[in-house]
Specification:
This is DUF7770 domain-containing protein. This protein is α+β, with helices and mostly antiparallel strands. The chain is 22% helix and 34% strand.
């Protein structure tokens, strides 16, 4: 079941996401990539998303997801999870925080104001890496993340395709479009 928050128009807000969790202090932000889904052209697509961690038993996922591998329109989703970061991730990157007063509401509102919640994937179905990358740049530019979080921490990992936790190969990032 989902519900709408007026300040998050068009977003899918999942069960258990309430005012309390949206306004609780975030302890860590992690970018994580999961296993491959093969599209109709035979390309393996690895999905990146962001985890806002509260403790070892609670996180919120910020996800720009498609309804199917062929659907290019995305739906911004906020989902509550009963763990810190998924254990099915191939690779996880923890980003250095610059503020001790971060909340999910503050982070999501900044993405809304900056136009980051209306996104379409590329014709090949790729684009989640570009969305995560842009999101981290926005948060860093507003002082939520430490300077260099994108360039020095995220970029060396997100600029590669990871087939397992120890093996990644360079891959040009394919961008979708913000609208």
């Amino acid at each position: 079941m989902s519900h709408q928050y007026p300040q998050f128009p068009g977003s899918f807000v999942g069960e258990g996401v309430d005012d309390y969790i949206l306004d609780a202090p975030v302890r860590a932000i992690c970018a994580a990539v999961g296993g491959a889904i093969r599209n109709s052209a035979g390309i393996d697509l690895y999905h990146w998303r962001l985890f806002l961690v509260y403790n070892e038993n609670t996180s919120i996922v910020f996800d720009m997801a498609k309804n199917s591998t062929e659907d290019l329109q995305s739906v911004p989703r906020i989902l509550r999870k009963p763990y810190a970061v998924t254990n099915t991730a191939i690779k996880v990157v923890e980003l250095p925080l610059a503020s001790a007063t971060l909340t999910a509401r503050k982070l999501w509102e900044k993405l809304y104001v900056e136009g980051c919640l209306q996104y379409s994937y590329s014709s090949s179905g790729e684009g989640c890496r570009a969305w995560v990358s842009k999101t981290i740049c926005v948060w860093e530019s507003h002082g939520f993340l430490a300077k260099g979080a994108h360039e020095n921490v995220l970029w060396p990992v997100i600029s590669r395709v990871w087939t397992d936790p120890n093996h990644g190969y360079p891959n040009e990032m394919v961008h979708g479009g913000f609208h």
